[in-house]
Design a protein that fits this description.
By secondary structure, the chain is mainly alpha-helical. It has a two-stranded antiparallel ribbon. The longest helix has 29 residues. It is a multi-pass membrane protein. It is found in: Membrane.
Length: about 260
């Protein structure tokens, strides 16, 4: 009986590093089956919007809309950030279950794997933004021009990339379910400190000086800029800087993880 020797150098590499819609669809379905993720995506952001809303000054003008619209954008940003971070941090459970090790035996490129994670995070963040906007429009009495509504939603969605990268970074650093136990309270604290829940002009001067350096400050200002028509240059630097830092951290930890035998 003759044996067939396969030369590993002749092995065909799949196109696009193994990227395919089937794997992407499975990742998305897996996230939607997670009850905790659904609560973060559909329930929590809308509940926070209604909790913060309905108070005196709800209809006061703010930029090209009203205060309700200002709060709506902030809550949409928080919900999308929380959801995308949870999606990114799922790599922690996958590493704990050995799924990441199994993927390293396949032709799937690690970078492509993270890209698919990012796309899933964008979809989940988009769902959170959509739910908050619908609640704000029909229940929360938000009022702003349609173009501002669309622009703020798109910008908020792009800003979620920062927290998707943060989730992946934390997922590679923190083991198992501890990732979201850190990210959940951490993002809530950053949201308070970064002016997402409470305007910074209501804080003491020393608190504001700290807030300007936090990851949530920059993205909050960027997401609300279509409504407020105000975007300080240092807020843009903050948003870009933290995004680059989290991406670099996630890439570094991913390279360490995939280098293991």
């Amino acid at each position: 009986m003759s044996t067939v020797t396969i030369d590993p150098n002749t092995r065909r590499v799949p196109p696009l590093g193994g990227f395919n819609l089937t794997v992407l669809g499975l990742e998305l379905k897996r996230m939607l089956r997670n009850r905790r993720t659904v609560i973060f995506t559909l329930v929590l952001p809308a509940a926070l919007l209604l909790t913060f809303g309905g108070q005196d000054g709800w209809d006061d003008p703010a930029g090209s809309g009203n205060v309700a619209a200002y709060i709506l954008i902030s809550m949409a940003m928080y919900g999308a950030a929380l959801t995308s971070a949870a999606t990114g941090s799922a790599v922690a459970m996958e590493r704990a279950l050995g799924w990441s090790r199994q993927l390293r035996l396949t032709p799937l490129n690690p970078v492509v794997y993270i890209v698919m994670k990012t796309l899933v995070a964008l979809v989940m963040g988009g769902i959170a933004i959509l739910v908050v906007n619908l609640v704000g429009a029909f229940v929360g009495k938000a009022d702003m021009p349609v173009d501002v509504w669309v622009a703020s939603a798109v910008v908020a969605l792009l800003c979620t990339l920062t927290f998707a990268a943060l989730g992946v970074f934390v997922g590679y650093v923190v083991p198992g379910e501890n990732a979201m136990q850190i990210l959940g309270p951490g993002l809530a604290l950053l949201s308070f400190l970064g002016g997402l829940f409470i305007p910074l002009d209501q804080y003491a001067d020393w608190v504001r000086e700290i807030a300007y350096w936090t990851p949530m400050y920059g993205v909050a200002e960027v997401a609300r800029s279509p409504l407020t028509h105000e975007l300080p240059w240092y807020a843009v630097i903050n948003a870009v800087g933290w995004f680059a830092l989290f991406v670099a951290g996630a890439a570094w930890r991913m390279s360490k993880d995939t280098a293991r035998v």
